[in-house]
Design a protein that fits this description.
The protein is α/β, with parallel strands linked by helices. The protein is built from 9 helices and 11 strands. It folds into 2 domains: about 5-70; about 90-260, 3-Layer(aba) Sandwich (Uracil-DNA Glycosylase, subunit E), CATH 3.40.470.
């Protein structure tokens, strides 16, 4: 019996490594067969899974019996004919904001030597109150960093920033602002997007973008046109460092986050 979760994971991996917004079944089926996830049958088994609705974000824009297009599992479903795009400063993705409180994100942490850009969704309440990234003690970001670089993380935020600078890590978020009742990403609405492409153009040494969590990955892949990124940049979806992400143990998160350090 086919492992659907592994198939989806490998499709995402193929899209990321080849910097594709979508892929056809024949092309990705060869990759799945190479990795032992499906038989080498020219995509017949994969098409059956597509017809059965087992593969997310797959559709036939031309109707039945037409070509399939498969997108990243974290990509918010939108029409394939509508390209993702951000303006020079931001994209307002919804109508005029209502009277509820709007959450504004933090300024990016980066310097001219930054190589790894970690993008969250939007800072939580504690981070906004302290104006410090990943300030909630329940968030495992700093524990992950400590393990990745085999160093103790200092307590003072300024020292933590020096730690990030030492290891060429930049921090920011996909969202510039949004209406949000709580710190949960699921409460987000009426959002605007940060000018990620503009940031990248000003920091040419960035070579890896790590998307911290499903929501960050979804917003990034929906609203940022990957084709506009420099060709050398690798985009990696990472399990959320939030302690509310119980699908991964801390050790499992660390294993996945190690991918950002691979050449």
């Amino acid at each position: 019996m086919a492992d659907i979760n592994r198939i989806i994971y490998l499709i995402d991996e193929y899209l990321e490594s080849n910097r594709l917004n979508h892929v056809g079944p024949s092309e990705v089926a060869a990759y799945l067969a190479k990795n032992g996830a499906l038989p080498s049958d020219g995509g017949k088994t994969l098409r059956r899974h597509l017809r059965d609705g087992k593969i997310p974000n797959a559709e036939q824009p031309g109707g039945k019996k037409q070509s399939w297009y498969i997108r990243h599992s974290n990509c918010k479903k939108t029409s394939l004919s509508t390209p993702a795009h951000t303006s020079e400063t931001e994209v307002i993705m919804t109508k005029v904001l209502t009277s509820s409180v709007v959450t504004e994100g933090l300024a990016p942490i980066a310097d001219s030597e930054s190589e790894f850009l970690i993008l969250g969704t939007l800072p939580g309440k504690v981070s906004l109150e302290t104006q410090c990234y990943y300030a909630n003690q329940g968030n495992q970001f700093w524990k992950i960093m400590s393990s990745l670089f085999d160093e103790s993380i200092p307590l003072a935020y300024e020292d933590r920033l020096r730690f990030l600078e030492k290891h060429h890590i930049a921090l920011w978020d996909v969202l510039k602002s949004a209406e949000r009742i709580s710190s949960l990403d699921s409460d987000i609405k009426n959002l605007t997007i940060n000018d990620i492409l503009g940031f990248i153009s000003k920091h040419p040494n960035i070579r890896v973008i790590g998307l911290n969590g499903d929501k960050a990955s979804t917003y990034f892949r929906t609203y940022i046109n990957i084709d506009e990124l420099p060709k050398h940049i690798r985009v990696v979806s990472l399990p959320s460092s939030s302690s509310t992400n119980t699908h991964f143990t801390l050790d499992a998160k660390i294993d996945r986050w190690e991918t950002i350090l691979k050449q």
